[in-house]
Task: inverse folding
């Protein structure tokens, strides 16, 4: 489980380093309208560190630029966060390119040859005579996993492999796979994206963080706690990377007010904010794509059960999200505030000034805020909760969370901005509330419009959703998940040790493999293994889902990590050291929580579920 990712890391980093030095400092900022150059970021750090260690002398150009640690973090060398925020095409994958994406074009040929080798070997091997299709299913899993791991092709392209491989190997028809590719979970995420983009467009996120931080006083621990809490809350509803990008100018404005020095403190603040963006996404089904993939797998494995209730997922996931973010805050305060000999004096005037510049709440912000509250309320109350029967069985029994999300967000496309409303209405609302400017472009005519959505919408996530769902279906239907689960079940371990093993493996694998890919590959296998060992399969799927968000060590592990690293205020060594500590703490806390606390919330809700893939639905 650990050997292949570690080998790939060792293989790829020299190639990245060589290319980084070749690209040089001139490429440190975004080089075009569609990409964020990770190699250039690495180059900026590498050159500064070489000069500090005395490994080489400065060039004439560098002498003129007066390169130093401070210069490397000056505004002229930073990625232009405002440009990135305004650039509609910068997705999470743009901000967090894989460590493999900068390798030479020969990688595609090598991966293609390995794929052919895997196919030949698997077609001439039989894992289990009682499961004749399992070996072919293994071939598809390994091939897709290999291309996902190396990212020799974009994840969106690799996600289409199953609909080609499964039919050609005689494992599933395209008609069946197409039903798995686009399901209700995809519509749930579309609705979440719409409301998230509306929040970004009208700057509601900035008002939230100013409101929280301005009420935290001048104590450093409370002020940083306000930062973390604000980012955590926002990332539960907005893309994690988008949250980090939007908040980074605010955080850097705060750090600029600090006295000179305090480099470790500044690095820790940035890390805490970046981690908060990843941890907050764990709390709701729309917070991060891995949650959506887990819900999609649940629908695939147990179609007769119906949709996984929105409120139940939040009930299960929010506590562990709160525990981990609380650990981040306590750890930061213990090291840099409560026990530190260096006292940091902070100035909150920057936030008060920002709050004053925002002015009164605008008409558009009020509409988006009310829309979010309405949507959240409908999501939480739609399905039964304990004795509460849920409203949808009386109003519209066939609706799900996806259709509810679109019901509430689609009207934003026809809701006019205040400037387009009659003059009498503007005077009634207040002229000062009717001239808000979109942060993502020129003054639009509606709260949301298609021109603003189509370029910023993360279409690739829907493809990965679909690819993961097809892979999960094929892994179960071919019997491969059952065979792998039987091998895993031979380990004579109790439930806690099993959970600890799964959490540890997934946490460290997701440092080098896409979170969505990790969930897609491990979800079905772990659920089937849990069923064989007599454990709750849904609980084990939640273990994989939670662990897939514990990517705190590497800059390339998540979009927020890359955003933080791109500031130039933190090195890979610092991020890896502090991230490893958080990884270990998160593994221990998550294992204890899912083994001993989560069953109290779950009760016997899923106790009667059959083995994955035997809950009904279409067959091949």
Result:
């Amino acid at each position: 489980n650990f050997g292949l990712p570690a080998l790939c890391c060792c293989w790829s980093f020299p190639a990245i380093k060589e290319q980084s030095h070749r690209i040089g400092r001139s490429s440190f900022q975004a080089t075009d309208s569609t990409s964020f150059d990770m190699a250039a970021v690495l180059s900026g750090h590498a050159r500064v560190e070489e000069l500090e260690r005395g490994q080489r002398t400065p060039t004439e150009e560098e002498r003129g630029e007066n390169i130093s640690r401070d210069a490397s973090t000056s505004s002229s060398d930073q990625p232009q966060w405002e440009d990135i925020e305004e650039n509609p095409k910068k997705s999470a994958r743009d901000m967090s390119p894989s460590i493999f994406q900068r390798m030479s074009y020969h990688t595609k040929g090598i991966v293609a040859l390995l794929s052919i080798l895997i196919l030949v070997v698997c077609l001439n091997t039989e894992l289990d005579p009682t499961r004749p299709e399992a070996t072919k299913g293994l071939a598809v899993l390994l091939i897709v996993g290999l291309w996902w791991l190396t990212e020799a092709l974009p994840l969106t392209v690799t996600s289409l492999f199953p609909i080609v491989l499964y039919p050609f190997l005689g494992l599933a028809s395209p008609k069946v796979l197409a039903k798995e590719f686009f399901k209700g979970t995809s519509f749930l995420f579309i609705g979440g994206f719409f409301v998230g983009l509306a929040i970004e467009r009208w700057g509601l996120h900035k008002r939230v963080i100013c409101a929280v931080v301005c009420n935290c006083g001048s104590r450093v621990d409370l002020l940083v706690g306000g930062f973390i809490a604000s980012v955590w809350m926002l990332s539960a509803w907005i893309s994690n990377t988008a949250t980090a990008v939007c908040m980074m100018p605010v955080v850097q404005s705060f750090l600029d007010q600090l006295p000179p020095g305090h480099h470790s403190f500044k690095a820790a603040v940035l890390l805490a904010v970046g981690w908060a963006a990843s941890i907050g996404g764990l709390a709701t089904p729309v917070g991060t794509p891995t949650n959506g993939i887990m819900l999609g797998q649940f629908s695939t494995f147990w179609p007769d059960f119906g949709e996984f209730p929105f409120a139940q997922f939040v009930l299960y996931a929010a506590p562990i999200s709160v525990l981990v973010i609380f650990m981040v805050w306590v750890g930061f305060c213990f090291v840099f505030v409560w026990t530190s000999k260096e006292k940091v004096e902070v100035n909150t005037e920057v936030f008060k000034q920002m709050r004053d510049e925002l002015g009164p709440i605008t008409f558009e912000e009020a509409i988006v805020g009310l829309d979010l509250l309405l949507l959240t309320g409908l999501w939480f109350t739609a399905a039964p909760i304990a004795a509460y029967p849920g409203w949808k069985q009386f109003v519209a029994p066939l609706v799900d969370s996806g259709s509810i999300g679109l019901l509430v967000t689609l009207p934003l496309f026809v809701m006019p901005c205040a400037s387009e409303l009659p003059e009498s209405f503007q005077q009634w609302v207040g002229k000062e509330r009717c001239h808000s400017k979109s942060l993502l472009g020129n003054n639009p005519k509606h709260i949301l419009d298609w021109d603003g959505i189509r370029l910023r919408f993360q279409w690739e996530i829907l493809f990965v959703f679909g690819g993961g769902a097809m892979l999960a279906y094929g892994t179960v239907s071919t019997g491969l998940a059952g065979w792998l689960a039987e091998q895993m079940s031979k380990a004579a371990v109790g439930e806690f040790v099993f959970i600890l093993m799964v959490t540890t493996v997934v946490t460290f694998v997701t440092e080098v493999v896409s979170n969505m890919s990790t969930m897609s590959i491990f979800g079905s296998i772990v659920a089937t293994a849990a069923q064989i060992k007599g454990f709750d399969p849904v609980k084990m799927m939640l273990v994989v889902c939670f662990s897939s968000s514990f990517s705190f060590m590497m800059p390339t592990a998540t979009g927020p990590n890359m955003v933080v690293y791109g500031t130039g205020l933190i090195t890979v060594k610092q991020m890896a050291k502090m991230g490893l500590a958080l990884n270990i703490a998160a593994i221990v806390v998550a294992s204890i929580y899912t083994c001993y606390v989560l069953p109290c919330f779950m009760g016997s809700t899923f106790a009667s579920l059959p083995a994955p893939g035997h809950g009904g639905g279409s067959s091949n």
Q: What stands out?
A: The CA atoms of residues 538 and 606 lie 7 Å apart. The radius of gyration is 25 Å.
